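Q: Hi! First time doing this. I have a protein sequence and I read that you can turn it into a structure. Is that right? Here it is:
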Amino acid sequence: MRPIPENPTVAILGGAGEMGRTAVSIISQFEKIGELIIGDFNEVEASAVASQNLENAKTRIRTKFVDVTDREQLYSFLSDVTVVLNAVGPFYKFGVDVLKAAIACGCHYIDICDDWEPTIEMMGLDQDAQLNDVLAIIGMGASPGISNLLACLVSEELETIEDLFTVWPVDAGERGDAIEKAVEANKGTSGAIIHWMQQISGEIDLIENGEQVSRPPMQAIKMHYPGLGSGSGYTVGHPEPLTLSQSIEISGSSASLMLMQSATAAFISNLGGEINRGKTSIKDAALQIGSPSMIGKLKAAIAQFRYPKANNLPPFFAWAKGTINEEQFVVAARITSSPPAMDSATAWPLAIALQQILENQIHGVGVHAPETIIDIDHFFEAFAKCSEPPMAGRKEIIEIVREKL
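A: Yes, that's right. Below is the predicted 3D structure, encoded as C-alpha cells:
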C-alpha cells in the first residue's frame, strides 16, 4: 500500500452534498490531516460548507471546483490527493469513472456506493488497484457498510450459512425515516432518492441457491427475529449480497431488504411498475416520492392489504439461517444505537474507514468491500462513541441473538 505521508491531503468529492457536507464536518476534526479539500460542482455550496467548519476545524480546509464528468479536470484534482472520499451519486452514473481516476493517480479511495451494478464493475478493477499500490474501499456507509460488518458477525456464529440478509428501514421501525428525511431535505431530487428509484425498477441481482441471479425487486421476504417475532422486508438492488457471497459461502438466498409500511410498499411497487412500463422516468419517479399524486395515494391505499408488514422487526440488522453442530439456527445482529440521521449514519462509517487508513491499521491494496478489509472490532468501538446516545464500546452497541429452529 502506498505509504501515508505525515500530513496527508484528504479530499471529499461531493463535499457540498447531503452526505458529503456531514463527512466534512466530521473529518475536519481529525488531527492527522494536513489539508481537507472540498471538491464539488457547486462552488457556492462548497464555500458555504467550508465557512461553516473553518472556525472549529483542526486542519486546513479549502474548496475546489471539480466536475467528475470532465476527465482532465478530475485527474488533475486527484493527482495531489492522498485519500479521496467519494460522495458523488448516483454511483451507477459516476462511481466507476471516479475510481478509475483515483487508481490511475495513485490515490487511495473510499466511497458510499449503494448501487449493485457499478459495484460489480469497480470490484473488477482490483488488479489495476493492486498494480498501482492503491487501496479502494467500496460501499463504506450505513447500507452497505455497517450492514456488511453485521453480516460478518452473524456469519461467524454459524458453521454453515443457508440464507443471509441485510435489512434497512424506509418508514418502518424506530428511526425508520431515512427516505422521509432525504425527501424533506431535497424534495425528492437527491442522489439517494434517484438511486432508490433505479433499484426498485427493472431487475436486480441477488443470490438464490448460492448463485447470482436477476430478479424483479420488491419481493417480500419473511423472517423470524429471535425474541421479537416475524415480519417481512422487500428486496431492493444493493451491493451487499453480491460482495458478501464472494467471501462467505451461502448455499441459499441473500439479498438486501427494505422495511416499509404496507401502504409504502404498495406505492413503491406501483411506481416501479410505471418506470418499467415507460410511463414515468427515474427522475420523475423520484419527484413523485416527494409529491405523490392523489391517484398514486389511492392506488396504494387499495393495494396495501396485499403487502405484508414489518411488524416488530428492528430497523437495521443482519440475519442469517444456518447450522451449528448440524442443528439449524437463526442468528441476528443489530446495533443498539446510531447517529441520529441518515447523513450522519452514512458519513461516520466513511470517516472511521479513513481513520483506519490514516492510522495504518489497514495495509492491503486492491478493491475491497468493507467485510474484507475493515477492522470490525475497531470500527464498532469507534462507532459506539459517535452514536446517540453514545455507547462505551462494541459490547454495548452490538446485540447478537440466536434461536434454534
